[in-house]
Amino acid sequence: LFALSLDQVLDSGHRVPRHPLFFLGYKYEQHVRGADVEASGGEATGQDVRQEEQRVQALLQGPADAHDSVMIREIHKIYPAYMGNPAKVAVKTLTMGVSHGE
Q: Using 50, 70 and 90 to split pLDDT, how confident is the model at 69?
């Protein structure tokens, strides 16, 4: 039993170690409160991000020969719930373009 709890607590490099008192419901605090704006439901979109989204949207409205070499529009990535942990949002939304020769 002790060996199993040590396996959960010690860092083996394969997963995030758990709190030494995890079996009592204790958890490590993730970050300083308010540090992760997106996880708290806030909006962390900067001016440059909004400009890039608008630029890609404008290119999509125009002729096909004016498009960038690579265009990514509104993709997201969510890792499913695993081992009792909730689903994790890795990318909320991503829109970007890479111009020819860039």
A: confident
